[in-house]
Design a protein that fits this description.
This protein is mostly helical. Among the domains are: 2-121, Tetratricopeptide repeat domain (Serine Threonine Protein Phosphatase 5, Tetratricopeptide repeat, Alpha Horseshoe), CATH 1.25.40; 239-378, Tetratricopeptide repeat domain (Serine Threonine Protein Phosphatase 5, Tetratricopeptide repeat); 516-573, 434 Repressor (Amino-terminal Domain) (Orthogonal Bundle). Helix content is 72%, strand content 0%. It has 30 helices and no strands. The chain has helices at 2-14, 18-31, 36-48, 52-65, 70-82, 86-99, 104-118, 127-132, 139-146, 157-168, 180-190, 234-257, 261-274, 280-292, 295-312, 316-333, 339-353, 357-378, 381-396, 400-413, 418-431, 434-447, 452-464, 468-481, 486-503, 509-520, 523-530, 532-543, 545-552, 555-566. Helix 3 runs antiparallel to helix 4 (52-65). The longest helix is centred in the middle third of the chain and has 24 residues, at 234-257. The relative contact order is 0.03.
């Protein structure tokens, strides 16, 4: 019920029906007496009516309920200024700016208060203030609309804005009297009628800024009846505010592209104040804060956008965008692996709203960063050595699964130790997990190409997999770093024996078939057999041995022939 009364008050305020707005806000306060926003809104309505004492009371109540809310001090400053107490107005605006330095309304108010403080004091209600107060109240709009000389001004947005400013602040009338349109409306409100142009009366302005004067009617012509009074409807007011908000957004976008971020924030903030039914203004400001590295402000705006978006049943894509920006800001703030949990959760929520590829990439990046940080936080070479020793003990006892467990923990603590990869490769070999052992052996060689154990582990696994030519290459690569290593030399000997056994045709039919089937699954063997040049070489070996001798002088061709021989595909007799 309080929200409903508040909405009615906002609508009445936007339409210039300030008395009605006060009543609705009072009804809302009766239902929610601790809601600081309601007192702030009623303070604004009182100020628009020139009832600054009541406005001050509500502003003080607003600040008491919410001392960290900048807008409350804006209301307080406006009320003090309306009562003629410029020093207190300055003090209030400065307190508000301390909370929100970029608030344009507070900056503008402070400038006016300081100017008033330096000017001679005048009693409230005197001079232009008293005349300006005639512009307050809803009858202004009906009078302007009813008079044929001023009716057209209501189609001019700049003039409508002037009238609203004078309604809000009567003392501002003087600054607009240089505009002939305002002079014409003033004469209307004062009840002054000018019969013709010759008596020195000011001319009404037309739709342009410097329009031609209206044509004089013949004196003898009868006066036409005036139309019925017309008011600016709430719908028109709503459309105007939305149009103004869009212009502010466009200006903000332009400033953002120029990387003029402070100006962009000002425009987006103004757009938010003009139209709170479009959360894109909030998400745009959040994007600026993100670009500026003001991540906390970005997160606050994103939360506000999501909350308001839910209330308005906004498009899921816009809510997803706000959540994705919040996730990015949280990821930027992350210092530990646990800090990434909030960012990951936020990205996941964004994806449930809308499956965006860019958001999915950000989620994957955050998960990867979390994992890397976890590894860094878990890193401890001392504990890694202890786990490696435990693994060695279990290996000696032939308890290979237990050894693998401790070697794995050692690698989590220190993933850069080649010895652990070598030891775990040996365990996997004992367990018959040859592919896993081969990966560990290759990682061992990658971390330390001079470590002989890596080559012996890899060569042994390849030998067990009956990939004799590959095992031979591995052992020979190890001998380049350790030429006298007996394990490597023995490995070379065993591989040569197996390769020669195949070339001499000494393999059983079952062994030959098994080796051939395995070789045909090897991509390298497949490439050799599909190579047109090698197919010609193989044909020459069978049909033209003399020509084949020429081919065999080519080292590359000879190496490929040797692979085919060791795999049992080709037999030399």
């Amino acid at each position: 019920m309080a929200d409903e009364a508040k909405a009615k008050g906002n609508a009445a305020f936007a339409a210039g029906r300030f008395e009605e707005a006060v009543q609705h806000f009072s009804d809302a306060i009766a239902l929610a007496p601790d809601n600081h926003v309601l007192y702030s809104n009623r303070s604004a309505a009182y100020a628009s009516l020139g009832r600054y004492a009541e406005a001050l009371g509500d502003a003080e109540r607003t600040v008491a309920l919410k001392p960290d809310w900048a807008k409350g001090y804006s209301r307080l400053g406006a009320a003090h200024l309306g009562l003629g107490d410029a020093p207190k107005a300055v003090e209030a605006y400065e307190k508000g700016l301390a909370l929100e330095p970029s608030n344009e309304a507070l900056k503008s108010g402070l400038a006016q208060a300081r100017q008033a403080a330096s000017a001679p004091r005048r009693p409230v209600g005197s001079g232009a203030d008293a005349v300006g107060k005639m512009f307050q109240g809803p009858e202004l709009w009906s009078k302007v609309a009813a008079d044929p000389t001023t009716r057209g001004y209501l189609d001019q947005p700049d003039f409508v804005q002037m009238l609203r400013e004078v309604q809000r602040k009567p003392s501002s009338l003087n600054s607009y009297l240089s505009d002939q349109r305002m002079v014409q409306v003033l004469t209307l409100m004062l009840g002054i009628k000018f019969q013709n142009q010759s008596n020195g009366a000011p001319e009404p302005a037309a739709a342009q800024s410097n329009p031609p004067p209206p044509k004089q009617q013949p004196a003898a012509k009868a006066r036409e009846p005036e139309p019925e009074p017309m008011e600016v409807t709430e719908e028109e007011e709503h459309k105007e505010r939305k149009a103004s908000a869009q212009k502010e957004k466009e200006a903000g976008n332009a400033a953002y592209k120029r990387k003029d971020f402070d100006i962009a924030i000002q425009h987006y903030t103004t757009a938010m104040e003009l139209d709170d039914e479009d959360i894109s203004y909030i998400t745009n400001r959040a994007a600026v804060y993100l670009e500026m590295g003001k991540f906390d402000e970005c997160i606050k705006d994103c939360d506000k956008a999501v909350e308001r978006g839910r209330e308005l049943h906004a498009d899921f894509k816009i809510i997803s965008r706000a959540l994705a920006r919040k996730g990015t800001a949280l990821a930027k703030l992350a210092k530990s692996s646990q800090d990434y949990d909030a960012a990951i959760e936020t990205f996941q929520k964004a994806l449930t709203e809308h499956r965006n590829p860019d958001t999915l990439k950000k989620l994957n990046d955050a998960e990867r960063a979390k994992k890397e940080l976890e590894q860094q936080e878990y890193y401890d070479p001392g504990i890694a050595d202890e786990e490696r020793e435990k693994g060695n003990e279990f290996f000696k006892q032939q308890k290979y699964p237990e050894a693998v467990k401790h070697y794995t923990e050692a690698l989590r603590r220190n993933p850069k130790d080649p010895r652990v990869y070598s030891n775990r490769a040996a365990c996997y070999t004992k367990l018959g997990a040859l592919p896993e052992g081969l990966k560990d052996a290759e990682k061992c060689i990658e971390l330390d190409p001079t470590f002989s154990k890596g080559y012996t582990r890899k060569g042994a696994i390849q030998f067990f997999m009956k990939e004799y030519d590959k095992a031979l290459e591995t052992y020979q690569a190890g001998l380049k770093h350790d030429p006298k290593n007996q394990e490597l030399l023995d490995g070379v000997r065993r591989c040569v024996e197996q390769i020669n056994k195949a070339s001499r045709g000494e393999l059983s039919e079952e062994e030959l078939k098994e080796r051939q089937n395995k070789a045909m699954q090897d991509p390298e063997i497949q490439n050799i057999l599909t190579d047109p040049i090698m197919r010609q070489v193989l044909t020459d070996l069978q049909e033209n041995p003399r020509a084949a001798q020429v081919h065999l002088k080519n080292p590359g061709v000879m190496q490929k022939i040797q692979k085919l021989v060791s795999s049992g595909i080709v037999q030399m007799k």
